[in-house]
Amino acid sequence: MASDFRLKEQLPELTDQIVATYTKVGAIHHLGHCALPNYDVIISCIDDLKDILFPGYRRREGLHIGNVTYHVGDLIDGLHDKLTTQIARALRQDDRVTGRKSEDCDYEAKGQAMAIAFLHRIPELRTILATDARAAFDGDPACRSIDEVVFCYPGLEAITSHRIAHELRRLGVPFIPRMMSEWAHKQTGIDIHPGATIGESFFIDHGTGVVIGETCEIGHHVKIYQGVTLGALSFATDGDGNLVRGHKRHPTIEDYVVIYANATILGGKTVVGHHSVIGSSVWLTHSVVPHTTVTMEKPKLRIRAEIPDELKPELNYQI
Amino acid sequence: MASDFRLKEQLPELTDQIVATYTKVGAIHHLGHCALPNYDVIISCIDDLKDILFPGYRRREGLHIGNVTYHVGDLIDGLHDKLTTQIARALRQDDRVTGRKSEDCDYEAKGQAMAIAFLHRIPELRTILATDARAAFDGDPACRSIDEVVFCYPGLEAITSHRIAHELRRLGVPFIPRMMSEWAHKQTGIDIHPGATIGESFFIDHGTGVVIGETCEIGHHVKIYQGVTLGALSFATDGDGNLVRGHKRHPTIEDYVVIYANATILGGKTVVGHHSVIGSSVWLTHSVVPHTTVTMEKPKLRIRAEIPDELKPELNYQI
Amino acid sequence: MASDFRLKEQLPELTDQIVATYTKVGAIHHLGHCALPNYDVIISCIDDLKDILFPGYRRREGLHIGNVTYHVGDLIDGLHDKLTTQIARALRQDDRVTGRKSEDCDYEAKGQAMAIAFLHRIPELRTILATDARAAFDGDPACRSIDEVVFCYPGLEAITSHRIAHELRRLGVPFIPRMMSEWAHKQTGIDIHPGATIGESFFIDHGTGVVIGETCEIGHHVKIYQGVTLGALSFATDGDGNLVRGHKRHPTIEDYVVIYANATILGGKTVVGHHSVIGSSVWLTHSVVPHTTVTMEKPKLRIRAEIPDELKPELNYQI
Amino acid sequence: MASDFRLKEQLPELTDQIVATYTKVGAIHHLGHCALPNYDVIISCIDDLKDILFPGYRRREGLHIGNVTYHVGDLIDGLHDKLTTQIARALRQDDRVTGRKSEDCDYEAKGQAMAIAFLHRIPELRTILATDARAAFDGDPACRSIDEVVFCYPGLEAITSHRIAHELRRLGVPFIPRMMSEWAHKQTGIDIHPGATIGESFFIDHGTGVVIGETCEIGHHVKIYQGVTLGALSFATDGDGNLVRGHKRHPTIEDYVVIYANATILGGKTVVGHHSVIGSSVWLTHSVVPHTTVTMEKPKLRIRAEIPDELKPELNYQI
Amino acid sequence: MASDFRLKEQLPELTDQIVATYTKVGAIHHLGHCALPNYDVIISCIDDLKDILFPGYRRREGLHIGNVTYHVGDLIDGLHDKLTTQIARALRQDDRVTGRKSEDCDYEAKGQAMAIAFLHRIPELRTILATDARAAFDGDPACRSIDEVVFCYPGLEAITSHRIAHELRRLGVPFIPRMMSEWAHKQTGIDIHPGATIGESFFIDHGTGVVIGETCEIGHHVKIYQGVTLGALSFATDGDGNLVRGHKRHPTIEDYVVIYANATILGGKTVVGHHSVIGSSVWLTHSVVPHTTVTMEKPKLRIRAEIPDELKPELNYQI
Amino acid sequence: MASDFRLKEQLPELTDQIVATYTKVGAIHHLGHCALPNYDVIISCIDDLKDILFPGYRRREGLHIGNVTYHVGDLIDGLHDKLTTQIARALRQDDRVTGRKSEDCDYEAKGQAMAIAFLHRIPELRTILATDARAAFDGDPACRSIDEVVFCYPGLEAITSHRIAHELRRLGVPFIPRMMSEWAHKQTGIDIHPGATIGESFFIDHGTGVVIGETCEIGHHVKIYQGVTLGALSFATDGDGNLVRGHKRHPTIEDYVVIYANATILGGKTVVGHHSVIGSSVWLTHSVVPHTTVTMEKPKLRIRAEIPDELKPELNYQI
C-alpha cells in the first residue's frame, strides 16, 4: 500500500479534538450513564413476536401443531427475559431524562411486570391481527390468499409492529415503542406513531409514505392507501414559545372509512364520519358527516397538443 | 438480575393460551402443512441473479472475462437447485389454497421445468436491463456514468427485480414473484406489481412512493418520477359482493411518456398516448391522445405577507 | 429430490450464452478493470462514523468518558485505512470513466490526503449535527428527549449521512458520496443528493418520499415534512440533444422556512424567502419574498352525502 | 495490486486439467451421486444432544425447570427432522458403496424409524452419563464439583459423543457414528471407535492420545489415563491378502480396572480381569486374572552425573 | 419428504420423559440457579488478551505504535466488563456448590476487584511471555524467527493460556481458570492444570499429549517435549474413602531441566535437580540430584530378519 | 450492574503501562511493519484446496461432473488472488527478518509466480492423495469405504495439509507452510513439519501425538500409528553455542515400513530399511537393515495378585 504512515501521525491529535467535542457539544452522546435499550435486541423481540403471532411463515420451517407449543414456549420465555431487561433500561433512562429518581431494583421489577402484562396481550393481538389480514385479502383484488398477505404485505407488517408498540406504550413503557415504530417505518415506509389508536380490520395498501400521527383515532374496517397523511394542522406553544406536547393534534377517522392515495387529512378536531370515502389527493382540514364522499373537484388541467418548450428537453429520446 | 422467578411461573399457562388461538383463530398461521417458499432463499436468488446480470459490481470483487464463466456457471447451477425447490413449494401451496390436487413428484418436475425455462430468459433480461441503465444515464443530469446507475440507482434495482418477478409470473409460478416484488419495495420504496407489463428503456428516478398496479401496460422509453401512482379507479364486485379479481384495472402508458413526481393516473381504460408529458402532481382519470402535455392549471395559491396565527407556532425559532 | 439430472445438462450451454452477453451487451458489467469501491465497506464507514458522531447509542454499549477515547481512536484509525483504499478506488475508476490518465501510486496518496482531510471535518460535523438534533426536538411535540431523536428519527439519520457525503463530495471524492446517499435513501425513504447545500438546525419529519436535488441551497433552521420535493423544472440540452449536467436546476430555500407535507417546489431560479411557510401539497414554481405564507387556495372539494356508484365496491365491508 | 493479469490466463487450462483428474483419479471425489451426510448438520446434532443431555451449561443461558420443556421439545423436534434426513442419506450411500439396491422412499422411512428409536434412548443415556460425570468427580482430586466435570472435562465430552455414536451404530446407522467419533477425537484427542462397548461410570482423565478400538469391551467403573492404547495385535487377511474386517481384535477390560498413562494393551483375546491395575507405560499383550496389579519392572535407567556430549547442545542456556 | 408425520406424534411424550430425568437424575443439569460463566465469553477474553499480549499477529491488521493504544485501551475496557461479570458468576456458583452464603452485590464488587487486579498483571505477563517465546526460538533449530513462534507454536499458545489462568487462580477466581486451561488443551493437546507453577523461559515443543498436574513446580529455562507426563503417583483418601484434595501430588522440576518426549515423571516428592536431562520415554518416580542425566538403559529389542507371522498381514502391500 | 465506575478510572493508566511494554519488551509484537500473512485467509486457502482435491465431500453439496468445472474454476481463481497476496506478505516479512532488501513490487510478482507454480501442482497432488486414501482403506479393518476415509480420517487430513505445505515450502514460500502445518496439528494432533519428505500411499492411523521432524525422509507405502515420534537425537551448536539450523537431524524410513503406536525413532543417521516393522513403544536410535522386525523384548512386568498400598486409593469404587 502506498499510503504514507507519517501522515497518520496526526490521527491521535484529531482523536483528542473529537473527544473534546463530547464535553463541549452535549446532548448527542450517551456517555457515562446507564445503558440504553439495545436496538438489536428490540428488533429481535419484534421478530420473535412475529414468529408467535404468525407461526410457520418465516424463520422456522417445519412447525406443526404437535411441536408449536415448544417453539412458542421457548420464545415466550426468552421474550420475558429480553423485555424485562430492555424495559428496565428504558424506565431508568426515562427517569434520568425527566429528573425523577427511583430505586435501581424497582426498574427490574417494574420491567418484569410490564413485560408479563404485555405478553398476556398476545392472544388478543392474534385475534385482531387476523381481522387485519382478512381485511387485506378482502380489499385487494390482486391478492390470491391470506398466506400472501402474511408473507408479502407491508401494510400487515406495519400494523403488526404498531399493535405491539401501542400495547407497550399503553402499559407505560417509554422509548421502546418509538424504536419499534421506526423499525417498521424503515422496513415499510409506513410511519405510524405508537400513540395512534386503531380499530380492527385495518388495511393499508402499498403504504409507502403513509404517516399516522400520535393522537389519531381510527375506527374499525378503515382502509388507507399509499401516501396518506393523517397529520396536525399546527402546534400550540406555551407562554415561553415551547411546544405544548401531548394534546390531540391529529384527526379522528370513524368506522368503514376509505382514504385513497396521497390524501391529506389534518387537525385534531377533524372527524371523518363513518362510511365516508376520501378521494385520492384530497386535502381536508375540516370534519365531514357520516356517509360522505369527498373528491377533488374535477381538477383543472392544462392539456395542450404541443409540448411546451420547458418540457422538451425531456423528450430527447425521440430523435 | 432482580426479576422474580416466581412470576415467570405463569408463562407456561400463557403459552397454552397462545397456542389455543392457533386452532381458534385460523388463517394467519401455517402449521402442519407442506413447506412454504423460504423468504431468505428467495432473496438469495435475487442476489445471485443480480451478480449474473451485473457482474463485478457487488458481492464478488476481482471478476474478469477469464474467470467470470466459472463464477456465473456456479451461480446458475445453484440457482437451478434453489429455484426448483422453491417453485415446487409454491406450486404445492397454491394447489392447497385453491383446492386442486396433484401428485407430489409432479411439483418437483414442474418446478424444475419452470426454473430452467426462467434461467433461459437471462440473456434477454440482460439485454433489456442494459436499455434501462442507459435510460437512467440519459435521463438524469446528475448522473456521471453507467457504473453509478448500476451501483446507486434504486430505480434500476426495482426494475431489475420486477423483470425477474414478471418472467416468473409469466411462466405460471405462484407466490414467489410477489415475494420478490415486496422485497424490492422494501429496499427502494417502489412498489411494482409483478403482473405489470413494462417495455424497454424504462427509468424511475428517486422512486420512493411509486406504485404501479397489476394490470398496467407501459411502453418503451417511459420515465417516471417519485410518488407516481398508476392505480385503479374502483373495484368491481360480483353478485355476492366479492371482489372480481384479475380484470384490467390500471392504466396504459404508451411509448416515450414522461410522468413527473406525485402524478396520479387511475383506471383500466385510461390510456396516455405516446410522447405525452404528465406534469407533477397531476390527477388524471381519463385518456389523452398522443403528444399531449397535461399540467396542473396554474394552481391558485394564497400568498400572504403576514403569517397566519395557526402557522406561527412553527416559527418559534425566530426568537 | 425428484428433479431430473439430465435436464441440468443444458446449464453449461446456457452459462456460455449468458457470458457471451457480457461482450455483446456492454456497460452493465464491470469485468477486467480495477476494483470499484466496495459497498459493504462504505456502509461500514458510515456506521463507524455514526459511532463517532453519536457515541453510546448503537453498536457499542458501556461507553463512558474514560474509555471513549480508545474507542474513537480505534475507529478513526480504521476509517483512515478504509477510506484511503476506497477513495483511491473511486478516483481510479473516475479517471477510467472520464478517460483521464494518472500514475497508480497517485491514487493511494490522493485517497489518503482526502481521507485525512475528511476526518478533520468530524468535530465540525458533530457541532452542526447537534443543532439538527435540537431542531428535531424543538420541532416535534411528540418527541420526549434528544435521545429519542438520535435513536429513532429517520430525518436525523438522513441528514447525518448527507453531511458526511456532502463533505466527501466537497473534497472531490467521486462515486462514494452517491453510494452513501443511496444507502440513506434505502434506510429512510429520504433522497438527498450529496451536492445539496444545507444549513444548520435542519429538520425533516417523517421524511418518506422527500427528494432534495443536487443543486439545492437550503439555509439555517429549515423544517421539511414527508413527501416534499425540491426538484428541477426542466433539463437543458446542448446542441446535440445531450443533457447539460451541473448547472443550478433546484430551488433555494432561505433561513427559517417551513415546508409542509407533499409540497413541491421546482426550478433553479425559485427562491423561497426567509421566514416563509409553504403549506401542505402546495405546488410552487416561482420565487416568494421573505415572510410569505403560501397555502393552497381553499381546495374545491366535491362533497356528497351519497356515495357514488364507482366507489361503492369498496364498501362491501358494511354487509 | 501489482499482480500480472496476463499470467492468470493459464488458470482456465489448469482448471480443465484438475477436472480431468476427477475422471482419471477416481474414488476421492463425490460427484454425480446422491448427497452424503452433511458434516455441519451432524455436528449441530451433537450440540443439540449435549444441550438436552446436560441442560443449562452451554449454548442457552437462563434455563430453569419451568421453561426447559419448551427448549428440549423444540430441540427434539428439530433433531427428528435433521437425523431423519441425515440417516436416510447415510443409508442410501451405504447401499451405493455395497452395491445393494433399495427404493428411494424406503431410505426416508428407515431414517425416520432409526431417528425415533435413537431419540427414545436419550433418557437412558442421561442416566448412564450421570454415572460417568460422578466417576470423574470421584476419581480426580483436582476436581471441585460436578459442574466442573460437565463444563471442562474432555473425558466426559468424549464419552458423551461415544455413547451417542454407539447407540446410532447399534441401530444400524452407517457412516454417521464415525463422523461423530472423529469430531470428538478432533475436539479432545480421544479416539474411541463407535463400535466399542463401554459400561457405566467410565472416566478418562486428560485423555489426549487415548485410542480405544472397534471391538473393545469395557466393563463398569473403569478408569483410563492419557495416552492409553487398547489396540489390535495384528490383522488377519483372507486368501487374497485382503483384511478380514469385523472380528474381535481389541482387548476386554473388566469392571473396576484402572489403566495408567501411556499403557498399551493389545489383542482380541487379551482380558484384563476385574479390579486389576495396569501401571503407567506398561505394554501388555496377554490376559491377567482379576485383582492383578501390573507395573513395569523397576525400569533400568542410566543415571550419570555428567551430561553426555550428545545431550549437551541442549544446555546452551547455562552459559 | 417421505417422513411420516404421525410418527412424530410420540415426540411430546418422549420430551416429557426426558424432562422427567432432570429431576430424577440430578447433578448433570444446571436448571433454576444463577448463571454459570459463559464459555464463549471466556474464550473471547482469552482472544482479547492474546491481542494485548502479542499485538499485531492475529485478529487486527495494521496496528502500529501510533494506534495501538486505542486498540489496547478499548480491549482493556471491554475485558474489565466481561471479566467482572464472569468472575461474579463464578464466585456465586462456587458459593452455591460449597454451601457458603454471600450478599448478591458482593459478587459483582469482588468480581470487579479481581478483574482489575488481574489486568494489572498484564505488563508482567508480557515480560515473562517474551522469555518463553525466546526460549522456543533458541530451543528449536527448525524455527526461523520469533514471529514464527508467536504465530505457529502450540507450546506458546498453551503457556500463554496457562499464565493467564494461573494468575486468575492465584487471585482466588474459581472455575474460570479450568475453563481456560481446557480450551488451551482442546487447541493444542497440551493439558496444564492452572494450579501448576512455572518459571520463565519455558518451552514445550510439539506438545501433543503433555500433561502437567495441579501441584507441579517448574523452574526457569525448562524445556519439555511432546507426550511428557508430570503426574501423581497415587491419591490419598480420608477415613471415609474420599479423595484428599489439594496436597502436593506432582513433581518438582528445577531450573534448566530438559525432559524429552514421552517421559513420565510421577510423585509429589519427586524432585528433578537443576541442569538435569531426562531422556525420551524414561519412567521416573524418584528424585535425582542436579546435573543428572537419566536415559533408558539400552533398551533390549528383539531384532529379527524374518518377519513374524502375526505381523505379516500388515505387509500385504508387498505383493 | 453493581460494579464501581470509579475503579475503572485506573484503566487508562494501566493501558499506558501495557503499551509501554511494547517498546521495552520487543520481539513479541508486530507493530509498524508490513502486514503478516493472515491466518484466517491461510485457513480458507486450505479449505478451498480440500474442496478442489476432494470435491463433493464437505462445504458444497450437489456437485456433479456437469457443474464441478465452474466450482473448481471459481475456487482456483480466488486461490490465485489469495495466495498471491499472502505469499507476497510472507516474502516481505522474511526479508525484514533476515535483513534482506527487495523492491516492493517484486513481492507481488514473486508471490504470483509462486502461487501459479503451486496451483499447477494440484493434479499431481490429487494423484498422490488418492494413493494415501487407498492406503488407509487397505490398512484399517474397521474402515468400510474410501468415502469414510475422506470424510473421517484425521490421518488423511494431516497428510493433505502436509502435501500442500510441503509443495509451498519446496517453492521457497516462507512462513505459510508452517502456519498450515500448525493448523493441521491443531485439528488432528498430528505434527508433521513441512520440510519432511513423504512418499505415496502414506497412512497414519488415529494419529494423535505423532511428530515427524523437519528433515525426515519417508518412502512409499509407509504406515504409522498414534504417538510415533520421528525425532532428533540432539542438536548441534556452532562455536557461539547457537543452534545449527537446517542439517539432517531426523531419521529415514524406507518403503513398506510399518511403525506401531508410540514407537520413537531418533537421529539423522538412523535408517529403517524397507519392509521393516517397528513394534509398539520401541525406542530406536540406530539403523536397521531391510526386512527387519524390531519389537520390545518381552517386557519385564511385575504382576502381583495383591494390589500395592500406593495404588489402593484408586480403588475406592469397590466399596
UniProtKB/TrEMBL annotation, chains A, B, C, D, E, F:
Protein name in UniProt: Serine O-acetyltransferase
Family annotation (InterPro entries): LbH_SAT, Ser_AcTrfase_N_sf, Trimer_LpxA-like_sf
Enzyme class: transferase
Documented EC number(s): 2.3.1.30
UniProt KW keywords: Acyltransferase, Amino-acid biosynthesis, Transferase
Organism: Pirellula staleyi (strain ATCC 27377 / DSM 6068 / ICPB 4128)
GO aspect biological process, one term: amino acid biosynthetic process
Source domain of life: Bacteria
PANTHER family: SERINE ACETYLTRANSFERASE (PTHR42811)
UniProt cross-references to SUPFAM superfamilies, sorted A to Z: Trimeric LpxA-like enzymes
A GO term for molecular function: serine O-acetyltransferase activity
Keyword Amino-acid biosynthesis applies: yes
